[in-house]
Design brief:
CATH superfamily of the largest domain: Translation initiation factor eif-2b, domain 2
CATH class of the largest domain: Alpha Beta
CATH topology of the largest domain: Rossmann fold
Structural class: alpha/beta
Helix content: 25-40%
Distance between the termini: 39 Å
Bound molecules: 5-S-methyl-1-O-phosphono-5-thio-D-ribulose
Order of helices and strands: EEEHHHHHEHEHEHEEEHEEHEEE
Length: 338
């Protein structure tokens, strides 16, 4: 068994995605041979995590280019449907548009789309490796860290962002272990972070989301490391719901709060967190299985952490400290180095 799982692969003209809904019980794949199946996999969270849904969307465009005339109204509809399958992670939108643009400019659209999707996949693995390296250097030796949601290999095309840095720091002997928030309502921490840490040999202690404040106040955590789905031009961060309270509590306890994400996550077209699109998901995810019958739910999938609560932003370009100067358009990835 290889320690690092691969979130997806392309084989025999089809996209094979690890079905993240089945974990930790079963490691199995959803096999997609149409763009509609890819869209469904993204919407139902069979594939999840910002970079991973970007790559899945990219391969979805390949499947569309194999079946549809490029350009045509059916093609435009497919690209739009993939691009908007989930609203918060900007990686999805830019990766789909990037592959579609290259397909439209080519004499063989399907071939060109596949070339670009595979390039983005390789590029994401390289970005993860750089983020892991820069992030690991921030963690003091001999520490335990806290993370929220899941940011490992399953969520990316490489070894992960925040969890990639934790794994690199663990390999270097700096991190002793990770505290993982359960991450209600869909348990990405309990199901995926704990599973991936187990595979990678990283000691992992699971806590209920509400325990993070007391843990941070206790002084047992040297740093918080999380990912991001979209970063506004002023540095405000959209990430899994529950990230914002952790950032507030980390600030209150004087614990550094690091956000690790590729530069493609920066959406310089959005001035601030007030403009970040936050996905609302079905109430059943919150209510199942224990809520009293007839209860209503409020289920935002993400929240916004103000930039001033982020000690540093770690991208493949290096370690950036607020205030940032992102003078670029979404997905271009030019950033100022600290
Ligand atoms: O709803 P999800 O599980 O797709 O949310 C994922 C997150 O919020 C992750 O922290 C983020 O995408 C970074 S993944 C490297």
């Amino acid at each position: 068994m290889s320690a690092q799982v691969q979130s997806m692969h392309w084989r025999d003209g089809r996209l094979h995605l690890v079905d993240q809904r089945a974990l930790p019980g079963r490691l199995e794949h959803v096999v997609c041979s149409s763009w509609q199946q890819v869209r469904e996999a993204i919407c139902s969270l069979a594939v999840r995590g910002a970079p991973a849904i970007g790559l899945a969307g990219a391969y979805g465009v390949v499947l569309a280019a194999q079946r549809l005339a490029v350009p045509s109204s059916a093609w435009t509809e497919a690209v739009q449907a993939l691009r908007t399958a989930r609203p918060t992670a900007v990686d999805l939108s830019w990766a789909v548009q990037r592959v579609a643009r290259d397909a439209e400019a080519a004499t063989n659209p399907a071939e060109a789309a596949l070339r670009t999707a595979m390039f983005l996949h390789r590029q994401d693995a390289e970005r993860c490796a750089r983020i892991a390296k820069f992030g690991a250097e921030l963690i003091p030796a001999g520490s335990w860290v806290l993370t929220h949601c899941h940011t490992g290999a399953l969520a990316t095309g490489g070894e992960g962002t925040a969890l990639g840095a934790i794994a690199a720091a663990h390999r270097a002997g700096r991190v002793l272990g990770v505290y993982a928030d359960e991450t209600r309502p869909l348990w990405q921490g309990a199901r995926l972070t704990a599973w991936e840490c187990g595979r990678r040999g990283i000691p992992c202690r699971l806590l209920v989301d509400g325990a993070a404040g007391g843990l941070l106040a206790s002084g047992r955590v040297a740093a918080v490391l999380v990912g991001a789905d979209r970063i506004a031009a002023n540095g405000d961060i959209a990430n899994k719901v529950g990230t914002y309270p952790v950032a507030v509590l980390a600030a209150r306890s004087g614990v550094p709060f690091y956000v690790l994400a590729p530069e493609s996550t920066i959406d310089s077209g959005l001035p601030s967190g007030a403009d970040l699109p936050i996905e609302e998901r079905p109430g059943g995810e919150v209510l199942s299985p224990v809520a009293a019958p007839g209860t209503e739910a409020y289920n935002p999938a993400f929240d916004v952490t103000p930039a001033e609560l982020v000690t540093a932003l770690v991208t493949e370009g290096g370690v950036l400290r607020w205030p940032y100067a992102f003078g670029i358009s979404a997905g271009r990835g030019a950033t100022e180095r600290a």
